[in-house]
Amino acid sequence: MRRLSIVGDVTVGFPASRTGYGQATYGNTAPQTQRATWIIVDGTGRVTAFAGKVEYGQNIRTGLAVEVADELRVSMASVEVVLGDTARVPWDMGTFGSQSTARVGWQLRKAAATAREALLAMAADRLDLPVEDLEARDGAVVSRHDRSRSIPYADLIEADQEREIADHAQVTRRADFTQMGQSHLRRLDGIDRVTGAARYSQDILPEDVLYAAILHPPTYGATLRTIDLAASEALPGVVQVVEEGGIFAILAEDDETAALAARIARLEWDIPQGQPSRWDMPALLVESGQDGYSTQEAGDLDAGFKQADEVIEATYYIPYIAPMPMEPRAAVAAWEGDSLTVWAGTQRPFGLRAELASIFGMEESRIRVIAPEIGGGFGAKSPYGLAHDAARFAKAAGRPVRVAYTRAEETMWSNFRPAALIRIRAGVASDGRLVAWDSHAYHAGERVMIGRRGSETPYDAGNIRSMVYRSDSPLPSGSYRSLGAAVNHFAREVHMDDIAARVGRDPVEYRLAHLTEPRFRRVLEAAADDFGWSGPRLPDGRGAGIALGIDVGSYVATAAEVSVNGREVRVHRVSAALDCGLVVNPEGAANQMEGAIVMGLGGALFEASDFEAGRVLNPTFARYRVPRIVDAPRIDLRFVGDDETPSTGAGEPGIVPIAAAVSGAVFGATGVRHRELPIQRYLD
């Protein structure tokens, strides 16, 4: 069998078929994206697309498949998408930031368009017709004037040869789409996911695998004083105890035995004293704030406040929340000689490969990382130290090792969305016009970049300063859907609601009066229209709220209707408008928006990670409430972007404005402004 492969987006070649994993080869060098295989059309006419992204529920497999199918003029059933296997796919930084469609989808479209041009050129030789007289259709090249003159792709791929194709192959225009942009696309992996056929890291069980139970400390920062494993080692089925990098683990023939052995191990720990609790966080964030970074400056702030007839100040606090993905982490590692294969539900297969290479002092070319299906990540599965442990244990044991977290372990030893405190001071003229805006955001954690996202204001205040600070974090903090954008947007949008109320203006009208960016205005007007906006107070004691935002280049606005009954807030309906440019897979983009909105309701209403003395107090679903189906409102969504604008992300924008919209709606229902989340904790 011969196959057509696209290397980068320029060269089209016809290598002989061989065993192995295609042409993508990597060493311990810089990324080789441009030399990697993106598209293969084989001798049967089937198409394989390769992408370094991973599938963790966001449906990129379907989205990428439809882009390739449309460009190559084949059915989606003819396209296979290979993801997240470092031995097969192009290098990729990782699956985060809603970049799969915007970047990799575009790259695959260009590769597929180049393949189409190559096939047309080959068919022109075979049919003795000018390329201009040919078109690709249904997996074949067909004469535009005589449909009987055609040749299937499979028949074109028959001999070793090379053909240079110019790098200006044109992707398909929006008007010529036959599959992209259609709302009836069926999810390619949907049946496997609901029937249990999909394989996750938890399901990878190589022959002779050992099961590991890690002996975790009871608190953050605790150090081991004494250890007695005699009872554990005496259990039938326990193979050995390993200690790697200061971490002890019990390896057994099955996971039940490993877990039991861990429970009966006798360990004494030195526990640090004086660790902060959740009650200490607001003061700690401000007192420890450092590395102040200006994300936005305009005008003269002092002059702006001198113009103001009223200054409106407020402080907003958002606690830590846990990602709580449906699938707890798991990793399996197997050594074969001096080569290592790791299966892990990581969002960064190539990043993990580089980390493993550094740990073991070996070339990356001898390490293969495979990301099977992943049951949610939300940014938390970018770091994947569990895979480091599995590889160390497997090397020590001389057998494959599986490490799988329980729900409590997943929560305790994952990353949390950082707690944040945001102070905003706004100057308002006598006519209600904003003349100054001063924002200071303190985000817990090591990276200022997490707090930067979404910290700017889109509103025209003339004189603006937006600052972000890095503060101490008693919990491991890191990436979470939208990074700091949802937190920053909550403070800003609630503050805008507060100003509008103080100056007697409608929240929608007041925002529009300070917006010049057409895309912001478009999403706000669309969401208000679809919602039937009439103000914060609705009949029957209900309330309405609205907020807007921007994340990963996409503009979004959300309106919500709520009722409040005692200490329970019920969100009845949400109207959202999204401008993410060209929508390749409307069903997939809608699912992403809906999921982000529902996820955001958790942080708005009841999610918070409680901790004290270095312990997380609510690490399981029994104690940590997440939105369930009964909490999901009716969601009406409209895409309002321009099809000529390149695609931007749809996975994260939906979470950005929802908490502020709910807060505004609760104010409409109760007359009480909530500046601290989750709202239900602070209802009277």
Description of the molecule:
- The chain is an alpha+beta fold and 684 residues long.
- The chain folds into 3 domains: 3-189, Aldehyde Oxidoreductase, domain 4, CATH 3.30.365.10; 210-270 and 337-412, Aldehyde oxidase/xanthine dehydrogenase, molybdopterin binding domain (Aldehyde Oxidoreductase, domain 4); 288-321 and 416-682, Aldehyde Oxidoreductase, domain 4 (2-Layer Sandwich).
- 27% of the residues lie in helices and 26% in strands.
- The chain has a 7-stranded mixed sheet with strand order 12-13-10-20-17-18-19, with helices on both faces. A 6-stranded mixed sheet has the order 5-4-3-1-2-9, covered by helices on one side.
- Strand 6 (134-137) and strand 7 form a beta hairpin.
- The longest helix has 28 residues, at 100-127.
- The N and C termini lie far apart (72 Å).
- The model is unreliable at 8-34 (pLDDT under 50).
The total of beta strands comes to 29
Radius of gyration, rounded?
28 Å
Instruction: Identify the strand order in the major beta sheet.
Output: 12-13-10-20-17-18-19
Individual helix count: 17
What structural class is derived from the secondary structure elements? Answer: alpha+beta
Q: Overall mean pLDDT score?
A: 92
Helix content: 25-40%
CATH class of the largest domain equals Alpha Beta
The name of the CATH architecture of the largest domain is 2-Layer Sandwich
